[in-house]
Amino acid sequence: MLPVYGQLPFVPERAVGCEIITTGGRRILDLYGGHAVAALGYGHPQLTRAIQEQTSQLLFQSNAVALDIRAKAAEALVRIAPDGLERVFFVNSGAEANENALRMACMTTGRNKVLAVTHAFHGRTAAAAAVTWKSDKWYGFPAKPFDVEFIPRDDSEAATAMIDDTVAAVIVEPVQGVAGAYALSGEFLKTLRKATQACGAVLIADEVQSGMGRSGHFFAMQAHGVDPDILTSAKSLGGGIPCGAVLCREDVGMRFGPGDLGTTFGGGPVAAAAIATTIDVIETDRLLDNVRQREAQICTQCITGPVQRIQGKGLLLGLVCDRPAVEVRNALLDYDILTGTSADPHVLRILAPLVLEALHVEHLARALDTIPPITS
Length: 376
Ligand SMILES: Cc1ncc(COP(=O)(O)O)c(C=O)c1O
Hints:
- With 376 residues, the protein is α/β, with parallel strands linked by helices.
- The protein is built from twelve helices and 16 strands.
- A hairpin with a 2-residue loop joins strand 1 (12-16) and strand 2 (19-22).
- Helix 3 (68-80) packs parallel to helix 9 (269-284).
- The radius of gyration is 20 Å and the shape is globular.
- It binds pyridoxal-5'-phosphate.
- Pyridoxal-5'-phosphate binds at residues 93-95, 98, 121-123, 173, 177-178, 206, 208-209, 234.
Protein backbone atom coordinates (compact mmCIF):
# COMPACT_ATOMS: atom_id res chain seq x y z
CA MET A 1 0.00 0.00 0.00
CA LEU A 2 1.11 3.57 -0.62
CA PRO A 3 2.34 5.15 2.59
CA VAL A 4 -0.15 8.03 2.37
CA TYR A 5 -1.69 7.61 5.84
CA GLY A 6 -0.26 8.13 9.30
CA GLN A 7 -1.52 5.08 11.21
CA LEU A 8 -2.39 4.62 14.87
CA PRO A 9 -0.46 2.12 17.01
CA PHE A 10 -3.09 -0.65 17.31
CA VAL A 11 -4.75 -3.20 15.04
CA PRO A 12 -8.53 -3.65 15.44
CA GLU A 13 -9.74 -7.24 15.31
CA ARG A 14 -13.44 -6.72 15.99
CA ALA A 15 -15.74 -4.09 17.44
CA VAL A 16 -19.02 -4.00 19.32
CA GLY A 17 -21.15 -0.98 20.27
CA CYS A 18 -18.67 1.88 20.78
CA GLU A 19 -15.74 -0.39 21.56
CA ILE A 20 -12.90 -1.67 19.39
CA ILE A 21 -11.15 -4.86 20.50
CA THR A 22 -7.57 -5.08 19.22
CA THR A 23 -5.48 -8.08 18.19
CA GLY A 24 -3.68 -7.73 21.54
CA GLY A 25 -7.00 -7.83 23.47
CA ARG A 26 -7.12 -4.08 24.28
CA ARG A 27 -10.61 -2.60 24.50
CA ILE A 28 -10.66 0.95 23.12
CA LEU A 29 -13.60 3.35 23.43
CA ASP A 30 -14.08 4.69 19.89
CA LEU A 31 -15.06 8.36 19.87
CA TYR A 32 -13.88 8.74 16.27
CA GLY A 33 -16.16 6.22 14.55
CA GLY A 34 -13.87 5.54 11.59
CA HIS A 35 -14.00 9.22 10.42
CA ALA A 36 -17.70 9.72 11.34
CA VAL A 37 -18.86 6.55 9.59
CA ALA A 38 -20.03 4.22 12.38
CA ALA A 39 -23.31 6.03 13.11
CA LEU A 40 -24.89 3.00 14.80
CA GLY A 41 -21.66 1.85 16.43
CA TYR A 42 -20.45 -1.63 15.59
CA GLY A 43 -22.50 -4.80 15.22
CA HIS A 44 -25.92 -3.15 15.54
CA PRO A 45 -28.19 -6.22 15.21
CA GLN A 46 -30.71 -4.58 12.84
CA LEU A 47 -28.03 -3.25 10.46
CA THR A 48 -26.04 -6.49 10.54
CA ARG A 49 -29.20 -8.50 9.77
CA ALA A 50 -30.28 -6.19 6.94
CA ILE A 51 -26.85 -6.40 5.28
CA GLN A 52 -26.67 -10.19 5.72
CA GLU A 53 -30.17 -10.71 4.33
CA GLN A 54 -29.59 -8.40 1.36
CA THR A 55 -26.24 -10.03 0.65
CA SER A 56 -27.75 -13.49 0.44
CA GLN A 57 -30.84 -12.32 -1.48
CA LEU A 58 -29.19 -10.12 -4.16
CA LEU A 59 -25.58 -8.95 -3.78
CA PHE A 60 -25.48 -6.57 -6.73
CA GLN A 61 -27.29 -5.18 -9.73
CA SER A 62 -26.49 -1.84 -11.36
CA ASN A 63 -28.72 1.10 -12.22
CA ALA A 64 -29.54 -0.61 -15.53
CA VAL A 65 -32.43 -2.19 -13.59
CA ALA A 66 -34.90 -0.85 -11.04
CA LEU A 67 -34.65 -2.23 -7.50
CA ASP A 68 -37.29 -2.04 -4.78
CA ILE A 69 -34.64 -1.66 -2.08
CA ARG A 70 -33.06 1.30 -3.97
CA ALA A 71 -36.46 3.00 -4.23
CA LYS A 72 -37.03 2.36 -0.51
CA ALA A 73 -33.69 3.99 0.39
CA ALA A 74 -34.42 7.01 -1.84
CA GLU A 75 -37.87 7.46 -0.33
CA ALA A 76 -36.47 7.28 3.21
CA LEU A 77 -33.77 9.86 2.39
CA VAL A 78 -36.23 12.30 0.82
CA ARG A 79 -38.52 11.92 3.85
CA ILE A 80 -35.78 13.00 6.33
CA ALA A 81 -34.12 15.62 4.08
CA PRO A 82 -34.58 19.41 4.23
CA ASP A 83 -37.79 20.61 2.56
CA GLY A 84 -37.84 20.64 -1.22
CA LEU A 85 -35.13 18.01 -1.82
CA GLU A 86 -37.15 15.47 -3.76
CA ARG A 87 -34.70 13.72 -6.08
CA VAL A 88 -31.80 11.38 -5.30
CA PHE A 89 -28.72 10.29 -7.23
CA PHE A 90 -26.78 7.55 -5.44
CA VAL A 91 -22.97 7.44 -5.57
CA ASN A 92 -20.18 5.81 -3.56
CA SER A 93 -18.37 8.43 -1.50
CA GLY A 94 -18.42 12.00 -0.25
CA ALA A 95 -16.05 13.31 -2.89
CA GLU A 96 -18.06 11.66 -5.66
CA ALA A 97 -21.24 13.20 -4.26
CA ASN A 98 -19.68 16.68 -4.28
CA GLU A 99 -18.15 16.12 -7.73
CA ASN A 100 -21.61 15.40 -9.13
CA ALA A 101 -23.27 18.21 -7.18
CA LEU A 102 -20.79 20.70 -8.65
CA ARG A 103 -21.25 19.26 -12.15
CA MET A 104 -25.01 19.58 -11.75
CA ALA A 105 -24.67 23.21 -10.65
CA CYS A 106 -22.45 24.09 -13.64
CA MET A 107 -24.75 22.27 -16.07
CA THR A 108 -27.87 23.88 -14.59
CA THR A 109 -26.58 27.45 -14.62
CA GLY A 110 -24.13 27.40 -17.54
CA ARG A 111 -21.74 29.43 -15.32
CA ASN A 112 -18.14 28.60 -14.45
CA LYS A 113 -17.38 30.10 -11.05
CA VAL A 114 -17.87 28.32 -7.73
CA LEU A 115 -17.63 29.90 -4.29
CA ALA A 116 -16.61 27.90 -1.25
CA VAL A 117 -15.91 28.93 2.34
CA THR A 118 -12.47 29.34 3.91
CA HIS A 119 -11.32 26.26 5.91
CA ALA A 120 -13.71 23.98 3.98
CA PHE A 121 -12.96 20.35 3.10
CA HIS A 122 -14.98 18.74 0.30
CA GLY A 123 -12.90 15.75 -0.85
CA ARG A 124 -10.00 14.66 -3.03
CA THR A 125 -11.39 14.42 -6.58
CA ALA A 126 -10.80 17.17 -9.16
CA ALA A 127 -13.82 19.40 -8.52
CA ALA A 128 -14.23 18.59 -4.81
CA ALA A 129 -10.55 19.32 -4.13
CA ALA A 130 -10.75 22.55 -6.17
CA VAL A 131 -13.23 23.92 -3.60
CA THR A 132 -11.22 22.60 -0.64
CA TRP A 133 -9.33 25.28 1.33
CA LYS A 134 -5.56 25.12 0.91
CA SER A 135 -5.65 22.05 -1.34
CA ASP A 136 -2.93 23.50 -3.58
CA LYS A 137 -0.17 21.55 -1.86
CA TRP A 138 -1.66 18.20 -2.91
CA TYR A 139 -4.11 19.17 -5.72
CA GLY A 140 -2.01 17.54 -8.42
CA PHE A 141 -4.08 18.30 -11.54
CA PRO A 142 -2.73 20.84 -14.07
CA ALA A 143 -5.86 23.04 -13.85
CA LYS A 144 -9.07 23.41 -11.86
CA PRO A 145 -12.35 22.63 -13.65
CA PHE A 146 -13.86 26.08 -12.88
CA ASP A 147 -12.89 29.39 -11.24
CA VAL A 148 -12.90 29.19 -7.46
CA GLU A 149 -13.08 31.90 -4.79
CA PHE A 150 -13.37 31.50 -1.03
CA ILE A 151 -15.79 33.49 1.14
CA PRO A 152 -14.28 34.25 4.58
CA ARG A 153 -16.23 32.03 6.95
CA ASP A 154 -19.13 33.64 8.82
CA ASP A 155 -18.60 36.91 6.92
CA SER A 156 -22.11 37.67 5.68
CA GLU A 157 -21.11 41.02 4.22
CA ALA A 158 -18.37 39.45 2.08
CA ALA A 159 -20.80 36.70 1.00
CA THR A 160 -23.36 39.23 -0.17
CA ALA A 161 -20.70 41.14 -2.11
CA MET A 162 -19.19 38.02 -3.73
CA ILE A 163 -22.35 36.15 -4.79
CA ASP A 164 -23.50 37.52 -8.15
CA ASP A 165 -24.88 36.23 -11.45
CA THR A 166 -21.48 34.86 -12.55
CA VAL A 167 -21.63 32.26 -9.76
CA ALA A 168 -22.78 28.73 -10.57
CA ALA A 169 -22.77 27.48 -6.98
CA VAL A 170 -21.87 28.16 -3.39
CA ILE A 171 -20.81 25.02 -1.56
CA VAL A 172 -20.80 24.97 2.24
CA GLU A 173 -20.44 22.55 5.16
CA PRO A 174 -22.83 23.88 7.82
CA VAL A 175 -20.49 22.41 10.43
CA GLN A 176 -16.93 22.39 9.06
CA GLY A 177 -15.66 18.95 10.05
CA VAL A 178 -12.02 18.63 9.02
CA ALA A 179 -11.52 22.29 10.05
CA GLY A 180 -12.16 21.21 13.66
CA ALA A 181 -15.96 20.96 13.99
CA TYR A 182 -16.58 24.66 13.46
CA ALA A 183 -20.32 25.40 13.28
CA LEU A 184 -21.07 28.24 10.86
CA SER A 185 -23.61 30.76 12.14
CA GLY A 186 -27.26 30.54 11.15
CA GLU A 187 -27.07 34.15 10.00
CA PHE A 188 -24.24 33.32 7.55
CA LEU A 189 -26.08 30.26 6.18
CA LYS A 190 -29.26 32.29 5.74
CA THR A 191 -27.27 34.99 3.91
CA LEU A 192 -25.89 32.36 1.52
CA ARG A 193 -29.43 31.15 0.87
CA LYS A 194 -30.81 34.63 0.23
CA ALA A 195 -27.92 35.76 -2.00
CA THR A 196 -27.84 32.58 -4.12
CA GLN A 197 -31.59 32.69 -4.57
CA ALA A 198 -31.43 36.33 -5.69
CA CYS A 199 -28.99 35.63 -8.54
CA GLY A 200 -29.91 32.11 -9.64
CA ALA A 201 -26.87 30.38 -8.14
CA VAL A 202 -27.16 26.87 -6.68
CA LEU A 203 -26.66 26.44 -2.91
CA ILE A 204 -24.96 23.11 -2.17
CA ALA A 205 -24.89 21.87 1.44
CA ASP A 206 -22.09 19.38 1.97
CA GLU A 207 -23.44 17.25 4.82
CA VAL A 208 -21.03 14.36 4.23
CA GLN A 209 -19.71 14.71 7.79
CA SER A 210 -22.45 16.72 9.53
CA GLY A 211 -25.41 14.74 8.19
CA MET A 212 -27.37 11.63 9.10
CA GLY A 213 -28.15 12.74 12.64
CA ARG A 214 -24.67 13.73 13.74
CA SER A 215 -25.67 17.34 14.48
CA GLY A 216 -28.72 16.31 16.52
CA HIS A 217 -30.88 16.95 13.45
CA PHE A 218 -30.96 14.63 10.46
CA PHE A 219 -29.13 17.37 8.56
CA ALA A 220 -27.42 20.37 10.16
CA MET A 221 -29.08 22.84 7.75
CA GLN A 222 -32.42 21.89 9.34
CA ALA A 223 -31.31 23.45 12.64
CA HIS A 224 -31.38 26.84 10.89
CA GLY A 225 -34.39 26.25 8.63
CA VAL A 226 -32.19 26.77 5.55
CA ASP A 227 -33.17 24.58 2.59
CA PRO A 228 -30.37 24.14 0.01
CA ASP A 229 -30.88 23.35 -3.69
CA ILE A 230 -28.54 20.34 -3.47
CA LEU A 231 -27.35 18.36 -0.46
CA THR A 232 -24.61 15.73 -0.40
CA SER A 233 -24.35 12.82 2.04
CA ALA A 234 -21.91 9.94 2.62
CA LYS A 235 -19.89 8.65 5.63
CA SER A 236 -22.64 7.70 8.19
CA LEU A 237 -25.18 7.30 5.37
CA GLY A 238 -24.84 3.51 5.23
CA GLY A 239 -23.65 3.02 8.83
CA GLY A 240 -20.34 1.59 7.54
CA ILE A 241 -21.14 0.33 4.04
CA PRO A 242 -19.47 2.70 1.54
CA CYS A 243 -22.06 4.87 -0.17
CA GLY A 244 -23.01 8.44 -0.96
CA ALA A 245 -25.97 10.41 -2.25
CA VAL A 246 -26.79 13.68 -3.98
CA LEU A 247 -30.22 15.06 -3.16
CA CYS A 248 -31.67 17.91 -5.17
CA ARG A 249 -34.75 20.01 -5.75
CA GLU A 250 -37.08 19.04 -8.56
CA ASP A 251 -36.23 22.22 -10.53
CA VAL A 252 -32.55 21.19 -10.51
CA GLY A 253 -33.22 17.48 -11.10
CA MET A 254 -35.59 17.99 -14.06
CA ARG A 255 -32.61 19.14 -16.16
CA PHE A 256 -31.03 15.65 -16.07
CA GLY A 257 -31.83 12.72 -18.30
CA PRO A 258 -30.30 9.42 -19.44
CA GLY A 259 -26.52 9.64 -19.84
CA ASP A 260 -26.03 12.95 -17.99
CA LEU A 261 -24.78 11.32 -14.77
CA GLY A 262 -23.68 7.80 -13.96
CA THR A 263 -21.89 5.32 -11.72
CA THR A 264 -21.62 1.55 -11.60
CA PHE A 265 -21.90 0.84 -7.89
CA GLY A 266 -24.01 3.79 -6.69
CA GLY A 267 -27.37 2.66 -5.28
CA GLY A 268 -26.39 -1.01 -5.23
CA PRO A 269 -28.72 -3.25 -3.22
CA VAL A 270 -26.46 -3.80 -0.18
CA ALA A 271 -25.73 -0.06 0.11
CA ALA A 272 -29.43 0.70 -0.33
CA ALA A 273 -30.40 -1.80 2.40
CA ALA A 274 -27.79 -0.24 4.70
CA ILE A 275 -29.12 3.30 4.03
CA ALA A 276 -32.77 2.37 4.59
CA THR A 277 -31.91 0.50 7.80
CA THR A 278 -29.61 3.20 9.18
CA ILE A 279 -32.41 5.77 8.78
CA ASP A 280 -34.91 3.38 10.34
CA VAL A 281 -32.68 2.73 13.39
CA ILE A 282 -31.92 6.44 13.92
CA GLU A 283 -35.69 6.99 14.08
CA THR A 284 -36.79 3.95 16.08
CA ASP A 285 -33.92 4.13 18.60
CA ARG A 286 -34.51 7.91 18.99
CA LEU A 287 -30.84 8.61 18.28
CA LEU A 288 -31.34 12.32 17.52
CA ASP A 289 -32.44 12.76 21.14
CA ASN A 290 -29.43 10.76 22.30
CA VAL A 291 -27.06 12.92 20.24
CA ARG A 292 -28.44 16.10 21.82
CA GLN A 293 -28.21 14.63 25.34
CA ARG A 294 -24.63 13.44 24.84
CA GLU A 295 -23.67 16.82 23.33
CA ALA A 296 -25.03 18.60 26.41
CA GLN A 297 -23.23 16.13 28.70
CA ILE A 298 -19.89 16.54 26.89
CA CYS A 299 -20.19 20.34 26.96
CA THR A 300 -20.93 20.21 30.72
CA GLN A 301 -18.43 17.56 31.83
CA CYS A 302 -15.50 17.73 29.41
CA ILE A 303 -14.20 21.28 29.73
CA THR A 304 -11.50 19.98 32.01
CA GLY A 305 -7.80 19.10 31.90
CA PRO A 306 -6.37 20.38 28.61
CA VAL A 307 -9.80 21.32 27.16
CA GLN A 308 -10.53 25.06 27.24
CA ARG A 309 -13.76 25.21 25.29
CA ILE A 310 -15.90 23.13 22.96
CA GLN A 311 -17.21 24.02 19.49
CA GLY A 312 -19.36 22.23 16.93
CA LYS A 313 -22.75 20.55 17.03
CA GLY A 314 -24.14 17.26 18.31
CA LEU A 315 -21.51 14.54 18.08
CA LEU A 316 -19.38 16.55 15.66
CA LEU A 317 -17.46 18.40 18.34
CA GLY A 318 -14.11 20.17 18.52
CA LEU A 319 -12.42 20.19 21.92
CA VAL A 320 -10.20 23.28 21.85
CA CYS A 321 -7.05 22.40 23.82
CA ASP A 322 -4.33 24.38 25.57
CA ARG A 323 -1.68 22.34 23.71
CA PRO A 324 -1.35 20.54 20.36
CA ALA A 325 -4.39 18.26 19.98
CA VAL A 326 -2.15 15.40 18.87
CA GLU A 327 -0.62 15.32 22.38
CA VAL A 328 -4.09 15.06 23.93
CA ARG A 329 -5.12 12.41 21.40
CA ASN A 330 -2.05 10.34 22.32
CA ALA A 331 -2.62 10.78 26.06
CA LEU A 332 -6.26 9.67 25.70
CA LEU A 333 -5.18 6.65 23.69
CA ASP A 334 -3.04 5.64 26.67
CA TYR A 335 -6.38 5.59 28.57
CA ASP A 336 -7.86 3.43 25.76
CA ILE A 337 -9.95 6.24 24.30
CA LEU A 338 -9.75 6.98 20.57
CA THR A 339 -10.35 10.57 19.39
CA GLY A 340 -9.24 12.44 16.27
CA THR A 341 -7.24 15.50 15.38
CA SER A 342 -8.26 18.11 12.78
CA ALA A 343 -6.76 20.71 10.46
CA ASP A 344 -6.70 23.10 13.44
CA PRO A 345 -3.65 21.98 15.46
CA HIS A 346 -5.34 22.78 18.80
CA VAL A 347 -8.67 21.09 18.11
CA LEU A 348 -9.37 17.48 19.05
CA ARG A 349 -12.32 16.01 17.17
CA ILE A 350 -15.10 13.84 18.57
CA LEU A 351 -17.06 11.95 15.90
CA ALA A 352 -18.56 9.31 18.16
CA PRO A 353 -21.21 6.80 17.14
CA LEU A 354 -24.71 8.21 17.66
CA VAL A 355 -25.33 5.37 20.15
CA LEU A 356 -22.77 6.83 22.58
CA GLU A 357 -23.79 6.28 26.22
CA ALA A 358 -23.57 8.54 29.29
CA LEU A 359 -20.99 6.28 30.92
CA HIS A 360 -18.70 6.70 27.89
CA VAL A 361 -18.76 10.48 28.30
CA GLU A 362 -18.05 10.11 32.04
CA HIS A 363 -15.04 7.93 31.12
CA LEU A 364 -13.79 10.63 28.71
CA ALA A 365 -14.24 13.39 31.32
CA ARG A 366 -12.29 11.37 33.93
CA ALA A 367 -9.46 10.68 31.48
CA LEU A 368 -9.21 14.36 30.43
CA ASP A 369 -9.14 15.33 34.08
CA THR A 370 -6.12 13.13 34.77
CA ILE A 371 -3.99 14.57 31.93
CA PRO A 372 -1.33 16.65 33.72
CA PRO A 373 -1.22 20.41 33.12
CA ILE A 374 1.47 21.85 30.84
CA THR A 375 4.63 22.53 32.77
CA SER A 376 6.35 25.76 31.73
C1 LIG B 1 -17.43 17.56 4.57
C2 LIG B 1 -16.76 16.50 3.76
N1 LIG B 1 -17.03 16.41 2.45
C3 LIG B 1 -16.48 15.47 1.67
C4 LIG B 1 -15.61 14.54 2.19
C5 LIG B 1 -15.02 13.49 1.30
O1 LIG B 1 -15.64 12.27 1.56
P1 LIG B 1 -14.97 10.89 1.06
O2 LIG B 1 -13.73 10.70 1.88
O3 LIG B 1 -16.04 9.87 1.32
O4 LIG B 1 -14.67 11.07 -0.39
C6 LIG B 1 -15.28 14.58 3.55
C7 LIG B 1 -14.35 13.62 4.12
O5 LIG B 1 -13.81 13.79 5.19
C8 LIG B 1 -15.88 15.58 4.36
O6 LIG B 1 -15.61 15.68 5.66
